[in-house]
Amino acid sequence: MKAVTLIVPCYNEEEALPIFYKAICGVAQKLPEYNVSLLFVNDGSKDGTLKVMKELAAKDERVTYISFSRNFGKEAAMYAGFCNAKGDYVAVMDADMQDPPELLPEMLKILENDEYDSVATRRVTREGEPPIRSFFARMFYKIINQISDADIVDGARDFRLMKQEMVKTIVEMGEYNRFSKGIFGWIGFRTKWLPFENVERVAGETKWSFWKLFKYSLDGIVNFSQAPLSIASFTGLFLTIVSFFAVLFVVVRRLIFGDPVAGWASTVSIILFIGGVQLLCMGIIGQYLAKTYMEVKKRPHYIIAETNDDTAHRVG
Ligand code: UDP
Ligand code: MG
Asked: What are the pLDDT digits (tens) for 235-267?
């Protein structure tokens, strides 16, 4: 019998978790040929999420939980899940039912046929989401696909079912600054995409503010593309050439027409403009340097404070 591990990163999900658990039990019942187990990752929740996890684990041996020492973010929670998932097939699912559990049987069927190594899901609608958020999300996917070689599909969710070999590869990609959507695309493997309609969260609220998402998207770009660095160098090159001609122009004009002192305003604006461009480029370089700094420190992605799995990697 093949084992399926469902990784569920949870941050303040005490209300959603029981609903999610029930839904999964329903789906597992329809899959008697699989050994479905749940791996809950408590990402430093401030509510009763851990208590709910413990209760579920006490009454159901298919439930394993991992509890972090603090909030490390969804990326770290997913990574901890990948490091500790033992199933032949592994999936990541949100606790809020936005990743429909009903899709699981279909996903398993696709992997069984052995034509694919993973089945990924994407939302084809963004209904129920603030329009401004959808707009920026679309822009982000457009930009990142232009400038990086990680193939990131618009509307892609982290919800995907993978074979264990692929999961091992993801664990091998131990970079500190993680952007899983990019990593999934970057490592390749044969992936089938399943579209589905957006579902609204069952309980609780989203953990992503607009700014958190904006920062996350910048992380994605810096992690998977060097294009901003090229933009910085090309801007520098362009301005150097322009200034060369400007100097030439000023010298020739001096020789032909003499030197009337004028143009204070334009000089100041040019200085301000160049200063701004310089700071922007330094900022871009700084972003990459900061990432390198964090990468070089080799800090762990997560620290487990409590778990009911004795074999779990406590730090990883
Ligand atoms: N999550 C997490 N750590 C965080 C933020 C979120 O583990 O710091 C989990 C959260 O509990 C949920 C999933 O990641 O299971 C997706 O979060 P959310 O539903 O808030 O994001 P959205 O669906 O709005 O993009
Ligand atoms: Mg959600």
From this structure: 988 988 888 888 888 888 888 887 666 777 788
What is the C-alpha separation between 191 and 162, in angstroms, rounded?
9
Residue 206 CA to ligand 2 center (angstroms) comes to 6
Nearest by Cα to 183 from 210, 156, 203, 204? 156
Which residues sit with Cβ closer than 5 angstroms to ligand 2, an ion?
Answer: 94, 96, 98
Q: Would you say 4 and 38 are in contact if contact means Cβ atoms under 8 Å apart?
A: no
Sign of CA dihedral 280, 174, 141, 129: negative
- Could you give the angle at the alpha carbon of 229 between the alpha carbons of 223 and 230, nearest 5°? 125
Rounded to the nearest angstrom, the distance between the alpha carbon of 208 and the centre of ligand 1 is 7
Per the prediction, the chain carries an average pLDDT of 90
Residue of 186, 184, 195 whose CA lies nearest to 162: 184
Q: What pLDDT is attached to residue 152? A: 84
pTM of the model: 0.86
Give, in degrees to the nearest 5, the angle at Cα 55 between 50 and 58: 120
Q: What integer is the mean pLDDT of 111-118? A: 90
**pLDDT at residue 257 in the model:** 83
